[in-house]
C-alpha cells in the first residue's frame, strides 16, 4: 500500500493517467525524469546491468543442463526471469562465431610458427661439410630447397622473405663446399612459382546483365562475380603472399556471413518442426520458440567446445596432464549435443520415445543438409569478399 500512496494524485506526463506506481499502467512510461545528474545515469546503468546479469545466471545454466526447460517455462508464462529467446540466440550466435574466428586465427598463427621453425632449421642445419662429392652437395641442396619451397607455397609474406634469405644462404654454403671440392658452382634449384603479371592481375572481367533485374542489382551481382573470380584465380595462380591475402579475405568474409546464414536456418527449422508435428495443433510461433532455444543451445555448446580446445592447446606445453585432461572434456560436450536435442524434443512435444526418435532422425537429416547448404553459401560469400 505504501507504493500505491506514494504517487497518489500524480498524473503520467505522457498520457495523463493517474499513477499507481513508478510506471504508468496505461502507457508504461516511467515516472522518473531523464533529466538528472550524471551519477543518476551511472546508477541506472549498473542497475540494468545487474538485472541482465541476474537473468543470465538463470538462463544459461538452465539452457545447457535442462533440455526443454526454458521452452516449457516460456510456454507456461514464466518469462521475466529469463533472457528472451531471440536475444539469447542472437547474442550466443555472434559470441560463438567470434570465438571460433579467434581460434582459427590462433591455429593459423601456430601453423605459421611451424613454418618459421622449418626455415630456421634449414638455416641452422646448412652445413655441407659432410658431403664428399659434388653430387652429394647438389642432392643435399635440392632436398633443402624442396622443403623451403613447400614452406614458401603456404606461407605469408613474412615467411616468403625468410625463405628467400634462407635459400640465398644455402646456395652460398653449397657453392663454398663445391669450391673446396674443386667443382663448379651450382645454380640449379627448385624455383618459386611465378607471380601473376600486372596485366594478368588487372585482366578485365566482362560484366553480365541479367534481364529482369534493376541496374543496381546487376551492378551488385557483377561486383560479387568479379571478386569471386579474382579470388579463385589468385588461389590457383598467385604467389604465396597473394594467396595468403586472398585466404585472409575469404576467411573474414566467411565468418562475417556465417551468423546471417545461420539465422536463416532458425525459421526453416521451425517449419520442419511444424510439418513433423502437424497434428499436435501447435502454432508456428511455438515451434519458433523451440527452434530459437535449440539454436541457442547449439551456439553455447560450440562456444564451450572451442574454448575447451583452445585452453587445452594452451596448457599442453606447460602442464601436459592438465591440457590432455581438459581436452578430454570435448568428447562429452560433443556427445551431449544430440542427446540434449532428443531429450528436448521428447519433453516439449510429449510423445513416446519411438515416434520421437523417428521424427528426430528425419528432422536431423533434413537440418544437416540445410546446414551443409548454409556453410556452402557462407563459403561462396567468403570467396566473393
From TrEMBL:
- Chain segments annotated as transmembrane: 88-108, 253-276, 296-315, 321-343, 364-384
Query: Is Transmembrane a UniProt keyword of this protein?
Result: yes
Q: Which UniProt keywords apply?
A: Membrane, Transmembrane, Transmembrane helix
The record's region (Disordered) falls at 181-201
Q: Where on the tree of life does the source sit, at the highest rank? A: Bacteria
Pfam family for this entry, one: DUF3667
* Ranges of compositional bias, category Low complexity: 183-192
Q: What is this protein called?
A: DUF3667 domain-containing protein
Tell me the organism.
Dyella acidisoli
Amino acid at each position: 500500500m505504501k507504493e500505491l500512496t506514494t504517487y497518489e494524485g500524480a498524473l503520467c506526463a505522457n498520457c495523463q493517467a493517474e499513477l499507481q506506481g513508478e510506471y504508468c499502467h496505461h502507457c508504461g512510461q516511467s515516472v522518473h525524469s531523464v533529466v538528472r545528474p550524471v551519477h543518476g545515469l551511472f546508477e541506472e546503468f549498473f542497475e540494468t546491468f545487474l538485472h541482465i546479469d541476474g537473468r543470465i545466471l538463470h538462463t544459461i545454466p538452465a539452457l545447457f543442463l535442462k533440455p526443454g526447460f526454458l521452452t516449457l517455462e516460456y510456454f507456461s508464462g514464466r518469462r521475466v526471469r529469463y533472457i528472451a529467446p531471440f536475444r539469447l540466440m542472437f547474442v550466443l550466435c555472434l559470441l560463438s562465431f567470434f570465438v571460433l574466428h579467434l581460434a582459427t586465427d590462433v591455429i593459423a598463427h601456430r601453423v605459421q610458427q611451424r613454418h618459421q621453425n622449418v626455415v630456421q632449421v634449414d638455416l641452422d642445419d646448412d652445413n655441407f661439410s659432410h658431403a664428399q662429392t659434388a653430387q652429394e652437395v647438389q642432392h643435399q641442396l635440392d632436398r633443402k630447397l624442396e622443403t623451403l619451397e613447400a614452406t614458401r607455397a603456404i606461407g605469408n609474406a613474412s615467411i616468403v622473405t625468410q625463405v628467400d634469405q634462407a635459400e640465398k644462404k644455402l646456395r652460398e654454403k653449397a657453392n663454398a663446399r663445391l669450391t673446396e671440392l674443386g667443382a663448379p658452382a651450382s645454380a640449379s634449384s627448385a624455383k618459386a612459382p611465378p607471380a601473376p603479371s600486372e596485366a594478368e592481375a588487372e585482366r578485365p572481367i566482362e560484366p553480365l546483365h541479367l534481364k529482369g533485374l534493376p541496374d543496381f542489382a546487376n551492378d551488385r551481382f557483377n561486383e560479387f562475380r568479379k571478386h569471386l573470380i579474382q579470388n579463385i584465380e589468385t588461389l590457383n595462380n598467385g604467389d604465396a603472399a597473394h594467396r595468403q591475402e586472398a585466404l585472409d579475405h575469404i576467411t573474414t568474409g566467411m565468418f562475417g556471413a556465417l551468423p546471417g546464414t545461420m539465422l536463416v536456418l532458425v525459421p526453416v527449422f521451425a517449419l520442419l518442426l511444424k510439418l513433423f508435428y502437424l497434428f499436435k495443433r501447435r502454432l508456428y510461433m511455438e515451434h519458433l520458440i523451440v527452434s530459437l532455444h535449440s539454436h541457442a543451445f547449439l551456439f553455447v555448446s560450440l562456444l564451450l567446445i572451442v574454448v575447451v580446445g583452445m585452453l587445452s592447446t594452451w596448457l599442453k606445453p606447460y602442464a601436459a596432464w592438465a591440457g590432455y585432461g581438459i581436452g578430454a572434456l570435448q568428447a562429452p560436450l560433443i556427445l551431449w549435443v544430440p542427446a540434449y536435442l532428443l531429450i528436448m524434443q521428447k519433453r516439449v512435444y510429449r510423445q513416446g520415445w519411438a515416434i520421437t526418435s523417428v521424427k528426430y532422425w528425419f528432422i536431423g537429416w533434413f537440418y544437416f543438409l540445410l546446414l551443409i547448404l548454409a556453410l556452402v553459401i557462407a563459403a561462396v560469400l567468403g570467396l566473393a569478399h
